[in-house]
């Protein structure tokens, strides 16, 4: 019992030092307010409606959460990827067109492999040239968007008849009442990413490289190799998210997924990932994604004007960045 309490205290201190505990408390308070409003006035604020929980929240939070995990791990390594949205579009096009020819299992591998390959190319440009990653990946975002249009044209890529089978839908977008299968994907990926970042030596290297490159080199860590691994991980998350999006929407229009880039980075920042690297948790990244999507959902079902969503995301990034700066002092 004493050991368990000690571990809980240690974990709470660990999360607090990285800001994840505080942002979780904020999210819990907002969630409590939304639930209370839904219970008081279910007709005016149908937050607890089955269609809202299953059709909106359990689909939108997992996709953004998976992307936030990829973007957050890369940020901890000290790099950014501004081509996330473009890669989602190209990877989804690869998935749909490959599925139409060879079936969805091969298409899934092809989509994820293409996203990982693209991320590694982005990473090689960064580590070999020394160009800041936000410049290199911003330029490559335009390139990959153009590539998706070159491959597919301006018309949407859609599944051929009989390709989007019940098995495919159940696996990647299945409806199970109050939740969808995307939640299961987020849980599985979240647990695996937690062990990788917080319990594997690769995670230690990522924190070391993002926190102090010179110190990392002094203990024989190769920063360029670690950063390439972080880029590859970002590609793995992007490829998986692109398949979830393609199966849910039944198609993909190239150049329509750019918003995911800033939303993924915003979720990681709101979840207490440091903009200067070396700080962040998987738990915080997921909570950051949940916070953004939940408030966005609350604004929509509360019939707030559409621009309120952009206003909220923008203000949240600034407040989270200031908050992270304050927390860095407490973590040392």
UniProtKB/TrEMBL annotation:
One of its GO terms (molecular function) is transmembrane transporter activity. Keywords: Cell membrane, Membrane, Transmembrane, Transmembrane helix. This is Monosaccharide-transporting ATPase. It comes from Phytohabitans rumicis. The keyword GTP-binding does not apply. It is found in: Cell membrane. The keyword Metal-binding does not apply. The chain crosses the membrane at residues 20-40, 60-77, 82-100, 106-128, 135-159, 179-197, 230-248, 260-292, 304-323. One of its GO terms (cellular component) is plasma membrane.
